[in-house]
Specification:
CATH superfamily of the largest domain: tm_1862 like domain
CATH architecture of the largest domain: Alpha-Beta Horseshoe
Shape: globular
Number of domains: 3
Structural class: alpha/beta
Strand content: 15-25%
Number of helices: 14
Strand order of the largest sheet: 2-1-3-4-5-6
Largest sheet: 6 strands, parallel
Radius of gyration: 22 Å
Distance between the termini: 49 Å
Bound molecules: 5'-deoxyadenosine, iron/sulfur cluster
Number of strands: 19
């Protein structure tokens, strides 16, 4: 029996990769420990989407060096996007790192750890065909990979370099996995991919949704992330017709300026984006729409930033994730002239976040005294039962003794907050 300590950084994709890695290692007899000092092997699943994430990790990694002095047989493995991006160089910089394993190779973590050391960053098309067992954190809601990698090469983004080309899992494998999950009590699945709309197994993404929608006992279907350029009427229709598909879409806009969108290589204009929003809201009136925004892309002028502000006011997203532009290795944008000073990026980000806070608060207030359907996921830190609406808003439920995770309940919203709602059972 070997003891593994695992720390995860970054996006949902990474958190789910970690669940798969744990699934694999459990099969090989590993047990998870919560204290790195008790571990035989330490795994870091890392993120390099922005420079800050990378720096934070590197300083965290530096602090594990001491553990190795105390326990010379300890092994340290770096997984994820920093592993792929740095490869061999990471071992030169941090010689106490034993393994460097990129995200395309997580199905081979078990074999890799059997060697003394190693770097595993090869292109690995097999990943989409290997059904990797998963050890999931939640017992109610499960992430399920439908595709790996990304072919879009948005000019700011490192993901196509760290996660490689798009590879879709066969639809039967996905359906089989979800059927198994439902047998084990799961109520909700989130189909995962960098760009799910370009899923191309043996069926299209809208067809896949319809197949999953037929699985008996499954209550809710979600998916992330969608790319506006690939969102068409078939998908909107499938979302509207499949009763299990939740009324929520995450549709990254990135910028409200056509000039910047072009430089970002996003392949849509604002007019086209508005058209998609209209299509979604016409077909699914209750739909919640969330987005990602980047502030201060190279050459962004005040008028471009104002265009983003206008788009936020016009569309009124239910929530956004906004980031300062960050220069990433390999990317086209990192070589562009017109990189902006930190202060400008920070000021623009601030304006974006302040505006969206008002919008989110205003939208959530409209939910006061409405009844929402909540899938109970468990208890929060203050001991309240907590779950999400179909529109993906967090609801904390007061005085609700005796609920169990996995139940779907009707909740009267009594206190809307900015980042969550509060209510009681009806
Ligand atoms: N700088 C800032 N934000 C970025 N994102 C991706 N790359 C960068 C970058 N270089 C953001 C995008 C994407 C989200 C996952 O991260 O908004 O949608
Ligand atoms: Fe990055 Fe664009 Fe691919 Fe998303 S679609 S992972 S932002 S390159």
């Amino acid at each position: 029996m070997k003891r593994v300590y695992l720390e995860t950084w970054g996006c949902q994709m990474n958190f789910h990769d970690s669940e798969r890695v744990l699934g694999l290692l459990r099969q090989k007899g590993y047990v998870r420990v919560d204290d790195p000092r008790e571990a035989d092997v330490i795994l870091f699943n890392t993120c390099s989407i922005r420079e800050k994430a990378e720096h934070k990790f590197l300083s965290r990694l530096g602090r594990t060096k001491g553990l190795k002095k105390r326990n010379p047989s300890l092994k340290i493995a770096v997984l994820g996007c920093i592993a792929q991006q740095s490869g061999e160089k990471l071992k030169e910089k941090a010689p106490y790192v034993d393994y460097v394993i990129g995200p395309q190779n997580i199905n081979r973590v078990g074999e890799a750890l059997e060697l003394e050391e190693g770097v595993l960053t090869d292109d690995n098309p097999e990943i989409a065909l290997s059904d990797i067992p998963a050890y999931r954190e939640s017992t109610v809601s499960a992430w399920v990979n439908i595709m790996y990698g990304c072919n879009n090469f948005c000019s700011y983004c490192i993901v196509p370099y760290t996660r490689g080309r798009e590879r879709s899992r066969p639809a039967e494998n996905i359906v089989r996995e979800i059927e198994e999950l439902v047998k084990n009590g799961y109520k909700e699945v989130t189909l995962l991919g960098q760009n799910v709309n370009s899923y191309s197994g043996n069926v299209t993404f809208p067809e896949l949704l319809r197949m999953v929608n037929k699985i008996e006992g499954l209550e809710r279907i979600r998916f992330v992330t969608s790319h506006p350029k690939d969102l068409g009427p078939e998908l909107v229709q499938a979302m509207a017709e499949c009763e299990k598909v939740c009324e929520h879409i995450h549709l990254p806009l990135q910028s409200g300026s056509d000039r910047i969108l072009k430089l970002m290589n996003r392949k849509y204009t604002m007019e086209q984006y508005y058209e998609k929003i209209r299509m979604l809201r016409d077909a699914i009136p209750a739909i919640a729409i969330t987005t990602d925004i980047i502030a201060g892309f190279p050459t962004e002028r005040d008028e471009d930033h104002q265009a983003t502000i206008e788009a936020l006011k016009e569309i009124e997203f239910d929530g956004i994730f906004a980031f300062k532009y960050s220069k990433r290795p390999y990317t086209r944008a990192s070589k562009m002239d017109g990189q902006l000073p930190e202060e400008v990026k920070a000021e623009r980000l601030n304006q974006i976040l302040r505006l969206q806070d008002e919008i989110t608060e205003r939208k959530n207030k409209l939910l006061k005294n409405t009844v929402q359907e909540v899938l109970v996921e468990g208890k929060n830190d203050s001991g309240q039962y907590t779950g999400r609406t179909r529109t993906n808003k967090i609801v904390n439920i007061n005085k609700a003794d005796g609920l169990t995770a996995g139940q779907i309940v009707k909740v009267l919203i009594t206190e809307p907050h900015r980042h969550s709602l509060e209510g009681r059972l009806t």
